Amino acid sequence: MVNDAGQLYTMEGVAAGVIMLLTVYIVISTTSIYTPGDTHIPDMQLEQLGSDVLAMMDTPDTNGTKSALETFVNADDDAGFESMFLSYCNAKASGAADDLHMSANVTYRDGNLIKEHQFLAPDNTWTGRESAVRVTRWVQLDSQPGRTTYAGARAQAVLVEVLLWRA
Amino acid sequence: MSLDFLAGFTIFMLALIMVVSMVPGLLAGLESSGIDYDAVAYRTGVILVEDPGWPVYPPWEMNDEVHKDEIERIGLAVSKDTPNILLSTKVETFFNDSFFTPDDYRNLAIFGDIPYSYHFSLRSLDGVTYNEETGDPLPPGYGYIRRVVKIKEPGVAVINGTTFAPQYTSLSSNQEFIVRLDFGQLLDPSVGAAYRIDPRTEPVNVTITNFGAYLNMTEPSTNATLRTVTFWKKDPTRPIPQFTRIPFAYGTTDSSLYTLTIDGNPYDLTPDTKVFDNDNISLVLKPAATSLFTLDQNSILDIRFNFGDTPSQTNITGIHHYDYNSTNVTLPDLQTGVLEVAVW
Amino acid sequence: MACMNEDGQWIVLMGLLAALGLFFLALIINQSALVGQTTAEGVLEFPKNDIRDLRSEIFDYYDDYGPLQTLGYLDDVEEDIVRISLERKNAVVYFWDGPPQDVSGRLLRPVTIHYYNGVTEYDETVYY
Question: Are C113 and C65 found together in one domain?
Answer without folding.
Answer: yes
